[in-house]
Specification:
- This protein is α/β, with parallel strands linked by helices and about 350 residues long.
- The longest helix has 13 residues, at about 160-170.
- It has two domains: about 10-150 and about 285-335, 4-Layer Sandwich (Metallo-beta-lactamase, Chain A), CATH 3.60.15.10; about 160-280, Rossmann fold, CATH 3.40.50.
- The strands form three sheets. It has a seven-stranded mixed β-sheet with strand order 7-8-9-10-11-19-20, with helices on one face. It has a seven-stranded mixed β-sheet with strand order 14-13-15-12-16-18-17, sandwiched between helices.
- It starts with 7 loop residues before the first strand and ends in a 5-residue tail after the last strand.
- The relative contact order is 0.16.
- Helix 2 (about 60-70) runs antiparallel to helix 5 (about 205-215).
- Helix content is about 25%, strand content about 25%.
- The model has no long low-confidence stretch (mean pLDDT about 95).
- Helix 2 links the parallel strand 5 and strand 6.
- The structure holds zinc ion.
Length: about 350
């Protein structure tokens, strides 16, 4: 089913190896270059070691700004970080690497490596097919979060409109708490502002600073208050109409008796599901569903595919489906340890 090739692999520590010199999204002592595809934690593995041990650590400017917020401004200064714009090639020995946009969170990139023989090795990182350019490849390494045929979203409605209506309904009763992950929270802020929601937004400290970084890159998030400052505290304490944004890890800690919305990609049957008296889950994802992943493979026209089984998802099933539908050799890596 798959002829292993030396051009690409995924290690047991989660490093996506591309060509001779490049490892993405985890530390790999055998590769001089480390790429950070985006600022989510499962793609920052061993970053401290990479900063110490790699010749260069490469990422987009926006990813750098987000890591500065999430890890503190001194963190990246302990190594040789170079920022690379989308579409700008970087030559290292006989290999050329280029980052391309991935529609996922601010700054997210796909990676193309072209070797001396002109072979194209592509790593998608995390992506949503909608606004992600599909790169043609010889060897493709692709994320597998929703790589099972059970992970299809076919609501037939625009989730953004459903989310806006739900928030507007909640605001009639007072504060609406929204829980999500970094990047997606800011996408929600933008959706609500574009839909004309003008209530004040309140954010916890990290969410606030990630939002400010997003505004540097032309996201328009409107008036935003820090949750522990006077005016915001007053709004929250009196359950007044405002939208309060918190990282998912604060669910169950704040806003307990208020209107609560959790935003999750792991919802496939309904755009909105009520989970409690005033609690809802909205199916807004920053990953492609199964159909989107398959579409990427089809249009990329690879000869070999590796599905990333290090990170959460359905890599084994996805590799199997790719072989079944396209007769392209496909394997999930790293292999399950016995
Ligand atoms: Zn991600």
């Amino acid at each position: 089913m798959f002829t292993l090739n030396a051009e690409a692999s995924v290690t047991y520590r989660g490093a996506v190896q591309l060509g001779e010199s490049i490892a993405c999204d985890a530390f790999d002592e055998t590769k001089p270059l480390r790429i950070v595809s985006h600022a989510h934690a499962d793609h920052l593995i061993g970053l401290r070691q990479s900063l110490r041990g790699c010749e260069k650590v490469l990422m987009t400017n926006a990813t750098k700004d987000l890591i500065d917020v999430l890890r503190g401004p001194l963190f990246l200064m302990s190594g040789f970080v170079e920022t690379l714009d989308y579409g700008k090639a970087f030559q290292y020995g006989e290999e050329r690497l280029t980052l391309f946009k991935a529609d996922h969170i601010l700054g997210a990139a796909q990676v193309l490596v072209e070797n001396a023989e002109g072979k194209r090795i592509v790593y998608t990182g995390d992506f949503r097919i909608d606004d992600t350019p599909v790169l043609e490849s010889d060897t493709l390494i692709i994320e597998a979060t929703y790589g099972s045929p059970n992970c299809k979203r076919s609501f037939g409605v625009d989730v953004r409109n459903s989310l806006t209506s739900l928030v507007e309904e909640g605001l009639k009763h007072g504060t609406v708490y929204v829980f999500g992950y970094h990047g997606k929270i800011q996408e929600i802020m933008q959706i609500l502002r574009l839909a004309g929601v003008s209530a004040p937004f309140v954010a916890s400290e990290k969410v606030f600073h990630v939002s400010k970084a997003c505004e540097k890159y032309n996201m328009r998030l409107g008036r935003l208050l820090l949750s522990d400052e006077g005016q915001a505290r007053e709004l929250l304490n009196t359950n007044s109409p405002c939208v309060a944004f918190y990282h998912m890890c604060n669910k169950g800690k704040v806003g307990l008796n208020s209107f609560q919305i959790c935003v999750s990609g792991w919802e496939f049957d309904f755009p909105i599901r009520q989970t409690g008296d005033k609690e809802y889950v909205v199916a807004l994802s920053d990953h492609s569903d199964f159909e989107g992943l398959m579409e990427y493979v089809r249009r990329s026209k690879p000869k070999h595919v590796i599905t990333d089984s290090y990170r959460v998802g359905h890599a084994e099933t996805f590799a199997h489906e790719i072989y079944k539908h396209f007769r392209i050799s496909a394997i999930a890596l790293p292999k399950k340890q016995q």
